[in-house]
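@channel sequence for tomorrow's demo:
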Amino acid sequence: MKLLFDQNLSPRLVRLLGDLFPGSVHVMELGADRASDNVVWGLAKDGGFAIVSKDGDFQVRSVLLGHPPKVIWLRVGNAGTPEIAGLLRGASAELSMFDEDGAAALLTLGLLGSE
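structure tokens (generated this afternoon):
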């Protein structure tokens, strides 16, 4: 599963999770760090990425449009990069099942006590 990290997440996540999610990128690497959600959606769809974001707009778009791309919506409040990396690393089996599920468009992950 290749992940496309949205602008509201640290570009360091690509390196921190590269062993589990090879081929993943941050929107900044694609020159889209200030792009609209529509542009990010198109980049993810065309590139075979799942969007990882804290932005609820992608959750809404996923419900309305389905997939591709798939959306991983992080409900983590103000969690730092290490906590987010830990959450994604700990959910790797769940993410793999989500990737293989042809009907699933949205996966919500959260940390206890956030939001």
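heads up for whoever presents: Helices lie at 12-16, 37-47, 56-65, 81-90, 92-100.
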